[in-house]
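Appendix B, Record 12. Input sequence as logged:
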Amino acid sequence: MNPFFELTLAVAVSMLVVRPDPLTQSFLIGCVTLFAFGIWDDARTIGHWTKFLGQLGAAGVVVYYGNLWVARVPLLDGALPLELGKPFTIFALIGVINATNHSDGLDGLAGGESILSLIALAVLGYMSGSTLVLSISLATIGGILGFLRYNSHPAYVFMGDSGSQVLGFTLAFLVVYLTQTANTAVSAALPLLILGLPIADILSVLYQRIRGRMNWFKATRNHVHHRLMHLGFNHCETVVIIYSIQAALVTTAILARYEADTAVALVYGTVIATCFSTLTLAERRAWRLQRGQGAWSRLTHTLARLKMHTAVLKAPLLVITALAPTMMLLSALMVTHIPTDLAVTAALLSAVPAVYLFWPRMVHPALLRLAIYATAIIPAYLLISYPEEFPQRAESLTIALTVVLAAAMVLYVSLGAEQRFGTTPTDYLIVCGVVALLVFGSIDVNSRSVIEAVLFATVLMYACEIIVGTAAASSSRRLLQCSTLGTLLIITLRGVL
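Logged structural output:
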């Protein structure tokens, strides 16, 4: 099962218990339906019309049972009548599902584009006070991040229709709910910028197929990623270019959320027209990327020489293995208030590393890794929920240590000898997310503590993954396990006493 689907399903089930309303139920039913049809297609390659039947069922249950439909349409005065709005919503949901599905043409492409859209949805959901948008977005982002590390080129695991269809459905559901229910003050054209390049790409491909009198449903190599690779860009370069365009679009969506529909649509149209006209012009002139001995090649040569020095390779890893456990313990000691329910949770969670330290065969490594990640998230949760409980000196020290740890991780990823943790488009994606958080933090002062907490948790979890998943010394992994146990016990004692 795909990890991001597991997390989305988990948050949907948990919300079903908290708020068992038809809308949440319809979202869960739609996810399960599409996942089942996707598994069927991945296993036996079912026909297009059969897949459309599953998509129609998932969209229909959201529209007619969940009562979620599009009433506000860009550039149209007044609301759509129910008789038109509901069928249009079903058509739009199916369109986004297929757009995401068709963007899954290169390793990490669909997941990366979607995570950028979900970041925008999470930020907009937070600004709108929508728990539904924020929670589903964050859960799906978490799942995709874990998935992308092994789906980046060369991929170890693949998304398949079971993943891409659920992902497209989640994006479509959240976009419609955000703009039609959660915050009707935002532009009705905002979905264009949030969903971004995949929508324009599938429309372009459909136009070319119709113009060439080809089968609409037969796979062709005229998607944007195929055309970029034909111009000479390699796999990773193509993915990074598309990430950059998508990042620009979703960033604009947040900044222009309250602008007029005309302005939003014009910005989207200008960006898309520029991209496709540049691509078409390069193709007509038979342009090809020339790989010479420029500055980039010299930089690559310099990095290769640095990798030959053992000290350069070991120093960042030593900083990471020492600093990550230290930050865990300090975060548990620095906060001045720990709620009782969190202390009880920490007590239960502490059983995992405690048992593993003495009887490692009794605990699955995946469960231990989950406990480590949860321990890294707890301080972020406390910072978000109780920002006034962190002394100013403690906050400054946390920021400083986070910066040092992040710098060590960048050096390790850039110079590390292990290919599995070499630089990939996923790292570029994470950098985009960090920069976006910093920019949005300066725009919305009230969200500063949330942004600091998210950055802290992201950096710390990434560091834990490096320690657990690399060839770090067994003593380093042991230190991380002990610090996890110690952090959980400190939180337990300070919350109970």
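The CA atoms of residues 344 and 465 lie 26 Å apart.
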